[in-house]
Structure formats: C-alpha cells, structure tokens
C-alpha cells in the first residue's frame, strides 16, 4: 500500500484541505432547497429539517468510533471506501420518492463523512510536528468555514436554475472526483497503528473524556455551532415564507453567515494577546452583548437586513471562539490524534444535532426576536461552562 512520504506529502496535504469543507458542504448546500423538497416529498418544514438532523446525529456518533478505528486500521483505504459510498448515496437520493430513504441516505452520508473528516484531520498530526502542525491545524477551521460561505450561495443558484436534485448531483460528483484523486495521488499517513483492543480503547476514551478542559471544549464547540445550525435551518423559511423572497436570497444570507465565521476564524488564528481562557471569556461576553442588542432592537427595526447585521456580528464572534477551541482540542492528545479529532468534532456535532433539534422544537424561529432567544440560550450555556472551568483542574486551558 502506498504511503505518504516527502514526495507526495504536498499533494496529499492539498487534497486533504480540499476535502475539509466536505461536512459543511453536505449540510449547507441544499438549505435553499428545503421549501421545494418539503413539497416534493409531501412533508412539513420539520420533516425536511430532520434530513439534516439525521446527518448531524450519524456524523457525530460515527466520529466517536471512527477515530479509534482509523488509529488502528489506517486512514487511506477506509477513506477511499467512504468516498465511494458517499458518492453513491447522493445518486440514491436523487432518484428516490420516499422521504424515509432520504433520511437513511443522509445518515449513511454522515457516517462516511465522519471517517473522511477524522482521517484528514489526523493527517496533519501524523505528518507534521511543531510550528507546522500548529499552523495547519489552525488553518483547518478557516478552510472548513469556506463551505458555509460557498455552499448555500451556490445552492441558491442551483435551486433557482436546476431544482433541488442539482445539489445532490454536485455532492455526488464531488465525492467521485475526490475518490479518483485520492486513489491516484494520496496514501497512508498513520505511522504507528494502535492495536484494536477494546479495553485499551475504552481506557483512552475515558482518559480523553475525563479531562475537564478537553470535554468542556467539546461542549462549547457544540454550543457555538448550534447557533449557526439554528440559523441555517431557519433562514430558508424566514426568507422565502416570511419575506417572500427567492432561494437566491437565502443563499446570500447563508453566505454572509459563512463569511462571518471565516473572518472570526482568521481573527482567532491571528490574535494571540492574553491567555486562551481570557480570549474565550472576552469573546463570549461580546457575543452575549450583541445577542441582547439583537433581542431589544427586534421590535424597533423588524427587517431582514437588521437580522443579517446581527447574524454577521454574532457569527463572527462564534468563529473566533470556534477556531481557538478547535485547535486546542484536536492537538490536546497528539498520541491519540484520530480519537481526539473524532471526539472533538463528533462530540460537538452530536451536541449540535440534539441541541438544534431541541431548540427548534421548543421555539419556532420565524423572526429576529425568536432567533435572538435561541442564540441567548447557547451563549449562556457557553458562559456557564467557562465559569465551571475556573473551579475544576483545567490548568492547561487556563494557562494556554
């Protein structure tokens, strides 16, 4: 089996960065198609939103197991298999007429995406050390945030011109092309496979999850990303049903959300003044203040433009916080890079899937005020977890 070495490391790194936006693309590209898909599959808005929840749940759960499996059996072959299944599942969605089949395929896609993403994140820990490792792992969230920028914007135009199936054609061919490129140019990056021994694996899981700063970081990441997903799942109906605008406008709104996350991520990578903990607290306080202003001003300036101004600022602070914590968590345990990456992303996505489904079940997000209330819930949760870290043995995070 071909391995990653000095000759193909550069191309393998480039291919990894091309695949990093996959999870965001798979969740965001078909958002502008929600209203049409609800009609085509004869279901409600909640029924179509559930297709995204199925993806998020399976993606989150699978990453818990993907890390240990990839640490034992390698990254390369499992990555190729996952890309093949991912591509095929999109074409199944295109030709089905049953919403339950879509739910099943989305769950399968979540599992495949989990193996791909965990393997590619682990590559940067496998192949690089020192400052280069920190540089590339910090770039991960910035590159990942390209998908929320591009995907809904692209999806809006595809929806307007070609209908809902065009989004899944895009995903299917994207996975197929990447499968061919990976098979030709990439290779195995794992240097020391860990024996697949269940007691040892469970011990490592307990060690990672029992580390307060690591597990708290995962919870905060889930809380931050929930705000983004609540917006993404609600904006098609706010734009197209409340304001009676086209799916292209939905794409623009999601584009601004993604740009905000991207800018916030860049700020998180570039700003190094103060301890990590102080930067997290400051970001949370700023975000909380913006959310309160959003709620107060809802009755004074009720418009889509005002909603998007606050979304831009709130998601920017979310991107700042996300970049700081994601980089910290995935590099926290370099000897268990796959497992740490899997738990970091998988755990946060599981929290996001449960929390976003729960909040949308409790609050019908239809305007600025209800969106602000949903944001406030998770800003307060983040504040509570950060406060909790002051009173537990989490010295490494407090001193970083």
TrEMBL record:
It is found in: Membrane. InterPro entries: MFS (IPR011701), MFS_dom (IPR020846), MFS_trans_sf (IPR036259). The chain crosses the membrane at residues 12-31, 51-73, 80-101, 107-124, 136-156, 168-187, 208-228, 248-268, 280-298, 304-326, 347-366, 372-392. Residues 12-396 form the Major facilitator superfamily (MFS) profile domain. Coiled coil: none annotated. SUPFAM superfamilies: MFS general substrate transporter (SSF103473). Keywords: Membrane, Transmembrane, Transmembrane helix, Transport. Pfam families: MFS_1 (PF07690). This is MFS transporter. The lineage of its organism: Bacteria, Pseudomonadati, Bacteroidota, Chitinophagia, Chitinophagales.
């Amino acid at each position: 089996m071909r391995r990653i070495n000095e000759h193909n490391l550069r191309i393998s790194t480039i291919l990894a960065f091309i695949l990093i936006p996959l999870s965001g693309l798979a969740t965001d590209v078909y958002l502008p198609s929600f209203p049409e898909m609800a009609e085509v599959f004869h279901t409600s808005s909640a029924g179509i939103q559930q297709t995204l929840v199925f993806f998020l749940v399976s993606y989150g759960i699978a990453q818990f197991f993907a890390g240990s499996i990839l640490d034992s059996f390698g990254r390369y072959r499992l990555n190729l298999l996952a890309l093949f299944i991912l591509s095929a599942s999109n074409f199944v969605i295109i030709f089905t007429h049953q919403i339950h089949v879509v739910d099943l395929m989305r769950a399968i896609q979540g599992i495949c995406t989990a193996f791909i993403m965990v393997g590619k994140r682990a590559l940067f820990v496998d192949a690089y050390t020192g400052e280069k490792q920190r540089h590339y792992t910090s770039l991960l969230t910035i590159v990942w945030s390209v998908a929320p920028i591009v995907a809904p914007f692209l999806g809006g135009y595809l929806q307007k011109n070609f209908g809902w199936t065009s989004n899944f054609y895009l995903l299917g061919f994207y996975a197929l092309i990447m499968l061919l490129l990976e098979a030709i140019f990439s290779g195995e990056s794992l240097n020391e496979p860990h024996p697949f021994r269940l007691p040892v694996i469970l011990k490592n899981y307990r060690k990672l999850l029992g580390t307060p700063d690591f597990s708290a970081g995962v919870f905060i990441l889930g809380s931050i990303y929930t705000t983004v997903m609540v917006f993404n799942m609600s904006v098609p109906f706010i734009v197209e049903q409340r304001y009676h605008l086209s799916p292209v406008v939905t794409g623009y709104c999601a584009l601004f959300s993604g740009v905000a996350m991207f800018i916030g991520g860049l700020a998180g990578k570039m700003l190094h003044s103060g301890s990590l903990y102080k930067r997290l607290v400051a970001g949370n306080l700023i975000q909380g203040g913006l959310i309160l202003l959003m709620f107060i001003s809802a009755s004074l300036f009720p418009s889509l433009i005002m909603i998007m101004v606050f979304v831009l600022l709130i998601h920017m602070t979310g991107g700042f916080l996300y970049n700081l914590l994601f980089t910290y968590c995935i590099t926290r345990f370099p000897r268990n890079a796959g497992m740490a990456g899997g738990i970091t992303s998988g755990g946060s996505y599981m929290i996001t899937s449960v929390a976003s489904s729960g909040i949308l079940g409790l609050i019908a997000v239809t305007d600025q005020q209800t969106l602000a209330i949903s944001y406030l819930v998770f800003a307060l949760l983040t504040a509570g977890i950060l406060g909790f870290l002051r009173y537990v043995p989490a010295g490494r995070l407090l001193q970083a």
